Amino acid sequence: MNESQSEAVRVLCFGWLRDRLGTETLVREKVRTVLDLWSVMTREQPDLRDAYTRFRAARNLAYCDWQTPVEPGDEVAFMPPVTGGSVDGEAVPQLHAALVTGPIDVNRLVAELRSDDDGALAAFVGAVRGTSQGRTVERLDYEAYGPMAEHELLCIATAVTERHRLNGVAPVHRIGSLAVGEVSVAVVAAAPHRQAALLARAEAVDALKQNLPVWKREHHPDGAVWVDTREHEGIAKPDGAAPPLGPGIPGTPTIPAASTPGHEPTAAPGTPPLSHLDSSGSFHMVDISDRPSTLRSAVAEAVVRFSDRTTLDVLRDGPPKGDVIAAARLAGIMGAKHTHELIPLCHPLPLAHLDLQMDVEESPPGIRIVSFARCASSTGVEMEALTAASVAGLTVIDMLKSVDPWITAETVAPTLQERRPERRASASIVRLLDVGRMLWRGRHRVSLRPTGGGW
Fold first, then answer.
1. Which CA distances in Å does 185 have to 146, 208, 413?
2. What's the average model confidence in pLDDT over 247-275?
C-alpha cells in the first residue's frame, strides 16, 4: 500500500452497487464509523443513503456492524445481499475450500474426498439455468470479493466438519462468465453415516447462499440485470425502474417518535425500523402476501451442560423416565410445529422437513442439539429451527433434573446464519479463532486453491 492509500479508506462496492457508487474509491474525509463512510459515499444518492440496513458491510475482510470504527488504511466493502497429509498416522478430515475460475469437476471432488471410512458422500451441484422468471438466459457473470470469499469458504467448511464429524468436505464456487449448463457451485460432504453427510451438505449450501460475498448478473437477449436487485423492492435499480427511497417519499419506512409510557414500543430515532412495528408504532404481523414462495431452510443449535460427568453414566444406563435422546428429538419436532402458537406474530408455516441431531459430549459433559428446518414459503423458517432446538433442550433438562439439579441450558442460537448486526463482529472473530485453533492442532488437511485454478 502506497502512502496515498494509507492516508485514506479504500472503499469497494460489489454487485449492482458498483454501477451506482463505483467499483473502488479512496475516501480521505475524516470518518468515525462505517455508517459515516456510507453517508460520504451516498451523498449524491439520497435513495441509498437512508436504506443502508438493506446492505452488508465488511471491514478488512470481515463482516461488520455499521457502527464499527474506521481508520485510514482500512478497506471497507459495501455489498448487496449475496446470492493433504496426516498427523501421527491419524486419518484427518480434508477441507477443500476453493474459489475458482475454471470448470468444476464434481467427479474429481468426490474422488479426492472419498476414503474407506466413508459410508456416505452427499453432493450438491448448482448449474446455470436456461430460463429465469420466464426469460431466456444466455449466460451468467459471477463476481466475488475474492479474499473474503475464500475466508468464508474455509470458515463454512471448518464449521460443518466439526459439527457433523465429517471425514471431508468441499465447498467450491466458480466466478467469471458461465454458459448455460455449466456448474457454478458444488458442495460435497463425506461422512461415515448418511444423516451427517446430508445435513452437512444442506448447511453448507445454505451458508454459501447467506454469507458468501458473490454476486451474479444474468444476461438476456434484451440486456443484463443483477439478480439481487429483484429481492429489494424500493431500492432504485441501475435502469431506474424501481421507485427511490428517501425521507418523505411514499414507500419509505417511517420511524415513529419515542413511545409514550404504557404504550407499545417504537423504534428510537436513527435506528433501523423493526419489521413487526407499523408506521404508528403498533405491533402487526408482517404482510408477506406479495412475496413469492421459495425453498427456505434454517439451522439452529442449543447446548445443555451437565454439572457432573456422572450424569453421562445415567444417560447411557437409561434414566427412570426413559430414553432422553428419543424423547427430546420428538419434543423438538412437535415444538417446531407449534412455533406460531408460542411466538407472537410468527406466521404458521407448512414444514416440509424438521430433523434434530443430538450429540453427547464428554468434555465438558453435555448434549449438543442441532436442528434443521425446511419448507416452501414466503418467509423464513429460522424461528421454527430455534424453537425445535429450545424445546429439545428443555426436554433434556426436564428428564435429567432429578439426577442433576444444576443442569443448565448454555446457548440457543442460529447456526451458520447471519447474526444480528451487533453480534456479527464477535461471531467473525470466534470463527477465525476456531479456524486458527484447528489448523494449529494439525487436525485438518486444508486445500485453498488459487483463484486462477480449476477442479
1. 15, 9, 27
2. 43
- Please write the tens of the pLDDT for every residue from 88-126: 444 557 888 889 999 999 998 898 888 888 999 999 999
CB 370 within 8 A of CB 356: yes
| Helix or strand (DSSP H, E) at 225 | strand 223-226
Structural domains of the chain, count: 3
Q: Tell me the pairing of strands 366-377 and 294-305.
A: antiparallel
Q: Where are the beta strands (DSSP E) in 235-283?
A: none
The verdict on residue 360 lying in a domain is yes
Q: Per residue in 187-222, pLDDT tens?
A: 999 999 998 999 999 999 999 988 899 999 999 999
Helix (H) or strand (E) holding 255: none
Q: Is 65 a catalytic residue?
A: no
Cα distance between residue 33 and residue 408, in whole Å: 38
All cell numbers assigned to 262: 404504557
CA–CA distance, 80 with 56 (Å, rounded to integer): 6
The last residue of a domain, from among 79, 102, 126: 79
> How many angstroms separate the Cα of 303 from the Cα of each of 24, 271, 367, 369, 409?
43, 32, 6, 6, 6
Determine contact, residues 444/93, Cβ cutoff 8 Å.
yes
Domain range for 382: 294-417
CATH code where residue 32 lies: 3.10.20.30
Q: Of the listed 50, 398, 404, 434, which one is catalytic?
A: 398
d(CA 262, CA 284): 18
Instruction: Give the closest residue to 296 by CA, choosing from 227, 370, 385, 229.
Output: 385
40 pLDDT band (50/70/90 cuts)?
very high
- Higher-confidence position of 21 and 93: 21
Q: What is the DSSP letter of 90?
A: B
Q: What is the pLDDT of residue 453?
A: 43
Q: What is the pLDDT of residue 176?
A: 94
Phi-psi region of 165 (alpha: psi -120 to 50; beta: other; left: phi over 0): left
Q: Are 79 and 56 in contact (CB under 8 A)?
A: yes
Most confident residue range from 3-7, 411-415, 422-426, 451-455: 411-415
Give tens-digit pLDDT for 272-321: 556 766 666 677 788 877 777 788 888 888 999 998 888 888 887 765 55
Which contacts of 315-322 are long-range, i.e. CB under 8 A and separated by 24 or more positions?
315/360, 315/400, 319/399, 319/400, 319/402, 319/403, 320/402, 321/399, 322/399
* Residue 38: inside a domain: yes
Residues 56 and 117 both lie in one domain: no
